[in-house]
Inverse folding.
């Protein structure tokens, strides 16, 4: 068995990263831990191995930072006439199942992935789509992860293609780009120019209770099919998303 890590690292971001995207990791080393032990319990460093206590970290991270899963609540407050589910309310069996990689690395930034193209890519992968399969869209834009213009890179999946997958039993779908939709600045310009709803964030707001994985990495290390995906999100009560350690398991 081989396990491929599909998750981007969680690390301390530089100050130039916009606040809503910035992750902070504050480190406290073993020497500081020894001081804490003495303060809390009266045990001096001489009674600890090598005079050291615990190392700990304080993490400040948005639920949509790094590799994460979105819940329906992220898209709208109500979906299909009911209150949209938060990330901790989704069935756990959604997040473990057969995976398939559909290759859209030939797409340009801003291109749209249609339902017909999704069907063709699945056929090219040699995969017959099954209920609760986890579909991973490979764009190759993970090479730009952590760079300033990563948010502007990649094609995006249309509402039509998202609905097509959902109607075939897919509840978790992911992409190795900043977002599932086309880059937001492109959608925004088009929506404002045409003064039309249903353009900006079209796949997110397709009106379906599904979960998407954003900011995957290493999809290029996987075969098109024949592997299992594990992508359990952190159990954050009432949240619209949660980071996850996403992996592919190959026999």
């Amino acid at each position: 068995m081989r396990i491929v890590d599909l998750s981007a690292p969680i690390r301390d971001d530089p100050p130039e990263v916009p606040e809503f995207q910035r992750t902070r990791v504050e480190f406290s080393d073993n020497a500081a831990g020894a001081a804490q032990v003495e303060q809390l319990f009266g045990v001096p460093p001489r009674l600890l191995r090598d005079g050291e206590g615990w190392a700990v970290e304080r993490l400040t991270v948005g639920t949509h930072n790094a590799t994460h899963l979105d819940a329906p609540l992220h898209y709208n407050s109500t979906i299909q006439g009911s209150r949209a589910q938060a990330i901790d309310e989704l069935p756990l069996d959604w997040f473990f199942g057969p995976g398939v990689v559909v290759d859209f690395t030939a797409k340009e930034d801003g291109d749209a992935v249609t339902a017909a193209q999704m069907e063709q890519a699945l056929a090219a992968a040699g995969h017959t789509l099954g209920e609760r399969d986890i579909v991973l869209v490979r764009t190759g834009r993970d090479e730009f992860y952590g760079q300033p213009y990563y948010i502007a890179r990649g094609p995006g999946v249309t509402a039509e293609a998202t609905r097509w997958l959902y109607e075939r039993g897919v509840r978790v779908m992911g992409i190795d780009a900043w977002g599932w939709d086309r880059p937001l600045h492109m959608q925004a310009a088009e929506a404002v120019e045409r003064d039309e709803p249903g353009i900006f964030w079209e796949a997110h707001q397709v009106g379906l209770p599904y979960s998407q994985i954003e900011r995957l990495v290493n999809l290029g290390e996987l075969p098109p099919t024949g592997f299992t995906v594990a992508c359990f999100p952190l159990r954050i009560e009432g949240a619209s998303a949660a980071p996850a350690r996403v992996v592919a398991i190959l026999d």
User: Anything to note?
Assistant: Helices lie at 30-41, 72-75, 115-124, 159-167, 184-194.
